[in-house]
């Protein structure tokens, strides 16, 4: 896998791993450190060039787990992406005062690293009247200039973003001038359409921004896993998870008929199709299932044809349409004017 340029001075191989997103919303005791550690170790051994995390994941606990693994694998070149903006600590606001710089110092200590590949602003809330926005922008650019971080990142809007949130994203892109956009993207989620009428993929490509795609497998659902928690989150408690998975499973069976039902085929289709359609992007898959990490790294090589890509996209479109019908008709494309 050839490295891809995300920003000036930052190139990463296209596949890395993430400590996850929604699992850290649950009580700490429900997160199995052993599962995370095994997944991280296996990913590093298979050639993952980066790990994606956030200081809010277990209030730094995920970062400390990564630090433990990186100390064990000192001879491996593994970069870290982390996020800031949701963990307040004792400060009046997550972005207050010198909070960003102090939090970066804590993050680097947790990770046993001297710098971060990418530091992502994870929230659009900069206090009343955006009082903290200017200082945050100044701190981020100073940290990049000093080499504490290699690139500045901004979270992209989700498929549930309102037009106001999409406008907010555009404003922050202009103010912050990030190098990279980080976003959760999967075939289960409706396409985000920006004010320009572009998708996030088109927008970042046109502006020369790198793109980090997180959760492309929808917590394993698109790889054929019956992840009830993921489906509950996806459906927002409006529909039965079993009914939702029946919709997904029907289309996954169709994909298996065309491309083969071997172990890892579905995961490969997700990753390869995303990477071929976004040459400026890298992908982070979750480490919750060690064998799924194996599938992702073992089966990534090999291009899909244009007909293959169209077939896969149409299958995911039918999945979204089926889920939207169950949920009462959420629009397929959201966030635009």
How would you describe the overall organization of this protein?
It is built from eleven helices and twelve strands. α5 (163-176) links the parallel β7 (152-155) and β8 (180-184). It has helices at 33-46, 61-72, 99-111, 133-146, 163-176, 200-207, 228-235, 241-259, 265-277, 290-298, 306-327; strands at 4-7, 10-12, 15-18, 50-52, 79-84, 118-121, 152-155, 180-184, 191-192, 210-214, 281-286, 333-334. The protein is globular and about 55 Å long. It has one domain: TIM Barrel. By secondary structure, it is of the alpha/beta class. The model is unreliable at 330-337 (pLDDT under 50). It is 43% helix and 14% strand. α7 crosses α8. It has an eight-stranded parallel barrel, surrounded by seven helices. Strands 1-2 form a two-stranded antiparallel ribbon.
């Amino acid at each position: 896998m050839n490295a891809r340029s995300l920003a000036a001075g930052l190139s990463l191989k296209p596949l890395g791993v993430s400590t996850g997103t929604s699992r850290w919303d649950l009580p700490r005791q429900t997160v199995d450190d052993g599962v995370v550690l095994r997944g991280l170790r296996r990913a590093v051994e298979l050639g993952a060039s980066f790990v994606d995390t956030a200081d809010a994941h277990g209030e730094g606990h995920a970062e400390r787990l990564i630090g433990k693994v990186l100390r064990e694998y000192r001879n491996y070149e593994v970069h870290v992406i982390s996020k800031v903006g949701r963990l307040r600590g004792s400060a009046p606001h997550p972005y207050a005062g010198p909070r960003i710089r102090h939090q970066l110092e804590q993050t680097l200590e947790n990770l046993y690293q001297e710098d971060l590949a990418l530091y992502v602003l994870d929230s659009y809330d900069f206090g009343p009247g955006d009082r903290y926005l200017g200082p945050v922008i100044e701190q981020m650019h100073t940290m990049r200039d000093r080499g504490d971080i290699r690139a500045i990142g901004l979270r992209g809007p989700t498929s549930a973003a309102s037009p106001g949130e999409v406008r907010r994203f555009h404003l922050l892109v202009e103010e912050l001038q990030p190098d990279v956009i980080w976003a959760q993207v999967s075939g289960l989620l409706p396409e985000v359409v920006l004010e320009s009428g572009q998708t996030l993929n088109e927008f970042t490509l046109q502006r020369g921004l790198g793109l980090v795609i997180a959760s492309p497998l929808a917590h394993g659902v698109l790889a054929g896993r019956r992840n009830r928690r993921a489906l509950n989150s996806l459906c927002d408690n409006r529909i039965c998870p079993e009914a939702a998975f029946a919709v997904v499973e029907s289309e996954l069976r169709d994909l298996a008929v065309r491309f083969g039902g071997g172990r890892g085929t579905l995961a490969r289709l997700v990753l390869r199709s995303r990477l071929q359609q976004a040459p400026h992007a890298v992908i982070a898959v979750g480490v919750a299932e060690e064998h799924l990490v194996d599938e992702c790294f073992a089966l990534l090589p090999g291009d899909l044809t244009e007909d293959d890509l169209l077939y896969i996209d149409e299958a995911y479109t039918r999945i979204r349409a089926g889920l939207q019908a169950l949920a009462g008709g959420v629009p397929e494309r959201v966030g635009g004017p």
